[in-house]
Every structure is written in C-alpha cells, then in structure tokens.
Amino acid sequence: MSTEFIFRILGAIAAAIGGAFLGDEVAQLFRVAPEGYVIVFILLGFLIGLVLTPYITIRPLRHISARLAQMPAERLIAIVLGLFIGLVAAALLSLPLALLGSPFRQILPLVAAGVLCYLSVVILVSRQNDLQTFFSGFRSPLSHTNVEQNPAQAGEQFILLDTSVIIDGRIADISKTGFVRATLLIPNFILSELQHIADSADPLRRGRGRLGLEVLTQLQNDSPVPTQITDMDVSEVREADSKLVALARHLRCPIMTNDYNLNRVAELQGVAVLNINDLANAVKITSLPGEELKVKIIQEGRESDQGVGFLQDGTMVVVEDGRQLINKTLNVTVTKVLQTSAGRMIFAKP
What we know:
Elements: H1 3-30, H2 34-56, H3 58-70, H4 73-97, H5 104-126, H6 128-136, E1 158-161, H7 163-168, H8 170-177, E2 183-187, H9 188-198, H10 203-222, E3 227-230, H11 240-251, E4 255-257, H12 260-268, E5 273-275, H13 276-282, E6 292-300, E7 307-310, E8 316-319, E9 329-340, E10 343-349
Parallel strand pairs: 1-2, 1-4, 2-3, 4-5, 8-10
Antiparallel strand pairs: 6-7, 6-9, 7-8, 9-10
Helix pairs in contact: 1-2, 4-5, 4-6, 8-10, 9-10
C-alpha cells in the first residue's frame, strides 16, 4: 500500500467529516431536515478529499524535498539562518507592538514577523558566499582532508568520475601523464551502475562494463593519481546522473564525463565539467591554410568528387577532387580549417 493511497483515504475521511458538519449547518440555515444535506455533503467531501489530498499534502512535500536535495548547502544554511534571525527580531519587536490598541496589536506582530523573515532570508542568500568565507575561517588548518569529514574543501582536491569516462578508458592514460593532480573519486552508485552494465545480457554492453571495471583496477594499481571509492550518496535522488550532479554541488568539485546530456545538465546547475573529448580536440595539431599534409583517402565524401581521409589524431580531412583517389596516399594542401562540436575538420585539395 503506497503512502499516497494512505493519505488519500485519510484526507477523504477528514473531508467527509467536515462535509457532515457543513451539511448540518446548511440544513439549519434553510430550516429543513438535515439528513439529506448531511449525506450529500459527506459524499462530496469524501470525493473531494480523495482527489485533492495528495496535491495539498504529500506531493508538495516531495517537491520541496527534491528542491532541498538539489539546493547548495551554503544557500540552505543562509535560508535557515535568515529565518532564525527574522523570528528573533520579530519576537523582540512584538513587545512594543503589543502595547498598541486593538486590532493593531494582533495584526502588526504577524506582519512584522513575515517582513523581517523575508528581508533576513533575502539579505543572507545574496551574501551566502561571504558567509561561506566567514565560517571557513574557523576551520583548523590541521583538519582532515577526507571527503566524508571535510567536504567543503573537496573542490580543490577531488574529481568525480562518471560511468562514461570510466568505460572510455582514456582517463587511465591521462592520469599517467601528470596533468591530473586531484584525487579521482568514484561514488558507490557509479560502481553499482558499472557492475550492472557488466552483468548485462547484451554482449556489447557486457564488454563495455567489463572494460570499465578493468580501467578502475588499472587506476587503483598503476596510476600515480590517487583513486578512491566513496560511500557518499544522495538518497533523495534516484538516477545516477542526478546523484552525481547533486554530490558535485555538495562537494563543490568538478565532474569528468563524456556524456553530452550530463555535461549540459551539470553546466546549467553551476557544476564544473571536465570533458575528455574537449581535451582531445584541444590537443590536436593545428593546421593552417597553405600547409601541406600527407593523407590516405579511404572513402567518398558527402559532396560530389570529394574524398575523405583521417590524420593520426583522428582529424577528418576532406579532399576536393579526391573521389577518384580512394585507397591512395597523397600530399594535399590545406584550404580551410573548420571547428565543429564533433571536432576539427580540414578541407584540402591535392
């Protein structure tokens, strides 16, 4: 039995009881026998309560819980602290306001509490970065650097790995170059997703999953960069990508991924993203118009008389009048270089 169903039944019963009292009041107003009105209002109340109860109870709570789970810790602290300061100020102000005449002494304390809480929350949220700096000054320089004990400093020391970048495998080679200095952090839910892929009935997915597990073993045993498995989780979120983004926001650390959708979602939520494909495009050799290249034409191009070849780094070279030269290696002259979202493309002619 689901929680929503229980709330529907309880809400329907409460609304039916309220309908009974309302029906009796209506019958007395019209000075008629109350039995018919009571039965009608009980049925209406039961139906209204059965339909509307989740929309005013459990669903708003779920929405608020999801928003709080994705909210940065510093903003949540600023909101709670602002409410506390506003309530304290309202309590102090209610003493002189209680000396006023009626109805001001009943209305003004409530108005003052609402206004002061709102102003306090707005001011502290707008200065949340200053609050973070203020509280960080009280941390001991000898505090532990473990992510579970001190997540506020994790942004300078950890990089979260996504499933796609582990399966890709290039992170193992990149870590050996020394360009990555931070500790690579793999949450247990990413490890579980990788194991689920390795146990898939699809041979292709199973092979990818097993490759990812081998890459993790290589990172832990052969890489000079420390690699850690963490138990940290975001219980309010179910999907692995959403968990990863929420955890990165909590730790204030970047995510390394090759997943385009995760890349966009993380950037929209203010999380730094390290994309290996962007790195690969950035380190490709730059060719300028007029330079000569040696390339083998391996297939036809999209346009007529075009041939297509590839450099050693994977850069596509489109050769004019190269369709008749397929399977031949020739020297070409670069005419134009085009940077696209898929990578760099070079146009050339023999």
